[in-house]
Amino acid sequence: MILKDTIAAISSGNINQAISIIRISGPDAVEIIKKIYTGKIGTDKTITYGNIIDNTTNKVVDEVLINWFIGDKNYTGEDTVEINAHGGVIVTNKILNLILANGARLAERGEFTRRAFLNGKITLDKAEAINNLIHAKTNKQAEIAIAQFASKDNELIEQLEQELLNIISITEINIDYSDYYDIEQMDKNKLQPLVNALKQKLDVIINKSENAGDIYRGIEVALVGRPNTGKSSLLNCLLRKEKAIVTNIPGTTRDIVEGEFQINGILFKLIDTAGIRETDDTVESIGIERSKQAIKEAKIVVHLHDPNNKENEEDRMIEELSIGKEYIPVMNKTDLIELKDWPKDIVCISTKTKSLWELRNALVKKYNTVNLDDPEIIYNTRKLSLLKQAAISLQEASNGLDAGFGPEVVILDLTKTWESLREILNKQHDNEALLDNMFSKFCLGK
């Protein structure tokens, strides 16, 4: 694809640094540089030295090295020039402004990668992986992003599609060619195990992918409990800085306080919430409602208890709101009571003595076993969403069989499942593919 305009931007970040990079890409990239550069105009994949000058005053702006990527065998698939300048914000922006004044347009966010995609240099999946790598905050997040560069998602989905196609083919033949004697007769007892086995495979992939996806995005952890159980103190201890206000007055936290920290390279996003209790204070009530919402949105709920207070209605409400979440009950202030007196199924900590090792272990327990190189993990959000749709349709097919529906009804849900898998592969719903599969397996019309 030939794009008519030429774009430019600072690729190294608009900050003071040793070296800055200004990138120009498009059909006029070389012609624009000729107007403001005194050095040799290079050929593809060469580096030349010279000065950038202000062509309205002939004053030298900076001495630079320029990387030349001429032609379509480069990242964007079009003429690209990269200026390596001294990294001060002032001089870098002055060079950029000269480029814009001489015919380029300021690039939009992600536009260089977008051009690479439009010019067929990268797939959409790789473009998303590049963005993920740029925004990675931990080593594990970077590993996940890099793994997507060589993703084998399509191979996995094609295997699932073929298995589903075999099920659909047998079902279709039993509907359309029920009078033929040379076909395998299919009834509920034969079809149900095939559908359930495929559904189980989809569920395993989805579960693995969601856990790995949590690691990439960062795992949201809601710190909840009644007032004065030590939620803000715990937040400060985990973050290792005084971010939340801590007092012995119940109800100090009125709004959500957030922060991030890592354990073994896994990023956790902490949310310190207002203590949940009955109150007539309007502002505190708003904070409590936000606490309930935080529980709904969190992956992990850390429910703090105080040894001086027995469980009450508010605690039971928190437990109910946490159903379906990774729920970790925690007893704080272990420095106040003998350890032997604690229930065995509760995590014991002390924010006063900063004894948090049990909680740290509990937080990473679910994620420590995730193999980020597992070929059955799908990191791409779009693909995973479509796979979930496929799983829902497959479950509907299974429910239909349980309800006693025949192949002519169940085939509708099986076809919906196939459509979702085909969409993951960016393929149209092609009846020819189904017919090919059907007739390759059965000698119909003898």
From TrEMBL:
<dbReference type="InterPro" id="IPR027266">
    <property type="entry name" value="TrmE/GcvT-like"/>
</dbReference>
<feature type="binding site">
    <location>
        <position position="247"/>
    </location>
    <ligand>
        <name>K(+)</name>
    </ligand>
</feature>
<keyword id="KW-0819">tRNA processing</keyword>
<feature type="binding site">
    <location>
        <position position="232"/>
    </location>
    <ligand>
        <name>Mg(2+)</name>
    </ligand>
</feature>
<keyword id="KW-0630">Potassium</keyword>
<comment type="similarity">
    <text>Belongs to the TRAFAC class TrmE-Era-EngA-EngB-Septin-like GTPase superfamily. TrmE GTPase family.</text>
</comment>
<feature type="binding site">
    <location>
        <begin position="247"/>
        <end position="253"/>
    </location>
    <ligand>
        <name>GTP</name>
    </ligand>
</feature>
<dbReference type="InterPro" id="IPR004520">
    <property type="entry name" value="GTPase_MnmE"/>
</dbReference>
<comment type="function">
    <text>Exhibits a very high intrinsic GTPase hydrolysis rate. Involved in the addition of a carboxymethylaminomethyl (cmnm) group at the wobble position (U34) of certain tRNAs, forming tRNA-cmnm(5)s(2)U34.</text>
</comment>
<dbReference type="Pfam" id="PF01926">
    <property type="entry name" value="MMR_HSR1"/>
</dbReference>
<feature type="binding site">
    <location>
        <position position="253"/>
    </location>
    <ligand>
        <name>Mg(2+)</name>
    </ligand>
</feature>
<feature type="binding site">
    <location>
        <begin position="272"/>
        <end position="275"/>
    </location>
    <ligand>
        <name>GTP</name>
    </ligand>
</feature>
<keyword id="KW-0963">Cytoplasm</keyword>
<feature type="binding site">
    <location>
        <position position="252"/>
    </location>
    <ligand>
        <name>K(+)</name>
    </ligand>
</feature>
<dbReference type="InterPro" id="IPR031168">
    <property type="entry name" value="G_TrmE"/>
</dbReference>
<dbReference type="InterPro" id="IPR025867">
    <property type="entry name" value="MnmE_helical"/>
</dbReference>
<feature type="binding site">
    <location>
        <position position="446"/>
    </location>
    <ligand>
        <name>(6S)-5-formyl-5,6,7,8-tetrahydrofolate</name>
    </ligand>
</feature>
<keyword id="KW-0547">Nucleotide-binding</keyword>
<dbReference type="InterPro" id="IPR027417">
    <property type="entry name" value="P-loop_NTPase"/>
</dbReference>
<feature type="binding site">
    <location>
        <position position="82"/>
    </location>
    <ligand>
        <name>(6S)-5-formyl-5,6,7,8-tetrahydrofolate</name>
    </ligand>
</feature>
<dbReference type="Pfam" id="PF12631">
    <property type="entry name" value="MnmE_helical"/>
</dbReference>
<dbReference type="InterPro" id="IPR018948">
    <property type="entry name" value="GTP-bd_TrmE_N"/>
</dbReference>
<keyword id="KW-0342">GTP-binding</keyword>
<feature type="binding site">
    <location>
        <position position="121"/>
    </location>
    <ligand>
        <name>(6S)-5-formyl-5,6,7,8-tetrahydrofolate</name>
    </ligand>
</feature>
<protein>
    <recommendedName>
        <fullName>tRNA modification GTPase MnmE</fullName>
        <ecNumber>3.6.-.-</ecNumber>
    </recommendedName>
</protein>
<dbReference type="Pfam" id="PF10396">
    <property type="entry name" value="TrmE_N"/>
</dbReference>
<feature type="binding site">
    <location>
        <position position="249"/>
    </location>
    <ligand>
        <name>K(+)</name>
    </ligand>
</feature>
<comment type="subunit">
    <text>Homodimer. Heterotetramer of two MnmE and two MnmG subunits.</text>
</comment>
<dbReference type="InterPro" id="IPR006073">
    <property type="entry name" value="GTP-bd"/>
</dbReference>
<feature type="binding site">
    <location>
        <begin position="228"/>
        <end position="233"/>
    </location>
    <ligand>
        <name>GTP</name>
    </ligand>
</feature>
<dbReference type="InterPro" id="IPR005225">
    <property type="entry name" value="Small_GTP-bd"/>
</dbReference>
<feature type="binding site">
    <location>
        <position position="23"/>
    </location>
    <ligand>
        <name>(6S)-5-formyl-5,6,7,8-tetrahydrofolate</name>
    </ligand>
</feature>
<keyword id="KW-0460">Magnesium</keyword>
<feature type="domain" description="TrmE-type G">
    <location>
        <begin position="218"/>
        <end position="368"/>
    </location>
</feature>
<keyword id="KW-0479">Metal-binding</keyword>
<feature type="binding site">
    <location>
        <position position="228"/>
    </location>
    <ligand>
        <name>K(+)</name>
    </ligand>
</feature>
<keyword id="KW-0378">Hydrolase</keyword>
<dbReference type="InterPro" id="IPR027368">
    <property type="entry name" value="MnmE_dom2"/>
</dbReference>
